Known about the structure:
The protein has helices spanning about 15-35, 45-80, 90-105, 110-130, 140-165, 175-180, 185-215, 215-220, 225-250, 255-265, 270-295, 305-325, and strands spanning about 135, 135-140.
Amino acid sequence: MTTTKLTPRRKLPQPRRLLVVLGALTVCTAALATAALFIGAADSTTQIITDIRAPRVILALSIGAGLGVSGALLQGAFRNPLADPGLVGVSAGAALGTVLTVAVGAAYGSWLAAMGGVIGGIAAMASVMWIAKTPGRTEVVTLILAGVAITAFAAAVLSIVVATSDSAGTRSTTFWTTGSFALATWPGVVATLPFIAVGLVIAGALSGKLDALSLGDRAAYASGVPVRAVRWWALIAAVLTVAAGVAVVGIIVFIGLLVPHAIRLVLGPRHGRLIAGSALGGALLILLADTAARTLAAPVELPVGVVTAIIGAPAFILLLRRTRREQGGWA
Length: 331
């Protein structure tokens, strides 16, 4: 009786796998971006493409890249797989900062509104860090609970500002809390891109130091890494890549949580490739979610944050259970 010997599946070498994955993400993103310019309930006239859909696609790509990279930075800085700008209060703080700026006279979609969002995001991040900080470490449960508290507080103040403001630029609470690209314009693109670009540059510069930080503070100190400075620069870059986007499209959740995990499973934990993959993966996922949001129920447009939440919430629950099991409980 002859037996068939099964040979194990050979994995691609790491450099080749990196090129294949990043290349595939780039091609898919470019193809979807091109298709998104012509997909929609309205006729694809030149004016609709250039004035409405083009800024929307560019914003989706840039904000998606920022959200993906922000999640990778927060997870690396906190050494916490559950860190996400929407869960730790950064997005809510950015939305509140933007609404306050618009309510006192700044134009919606302007760089002043984006700056207000960045300041609000930094304030929220600093508050969460202050609440969650304990000697020698940042507790995962305290971090998440602090983020919940800051998010709830920011949402309450945001509702009050929206209800009492006479400024048309504040729009509605629904817009700021569920996210939408329906108001995307070229001025919004111009106001958002510089902040995201600076954040991405900082993220790339920190990638090697974040690898050392992932080994623990003591090991990082021993290798000559200024741990505190690296962590704060990573947090600043995370805020920059998210807050200006929130100022234009509102809060979009779970992208920063899910995308880095998916990229990490394929490309490994090294932050150089993780940041590049998270940027491309975030851009692709947000563009896909936005295209679905404006076409699935046409002519009614769904908030893009609703689409990402439907996908992200169950995935977050699974990730939460897995992390708790691996850490032996948090009691």
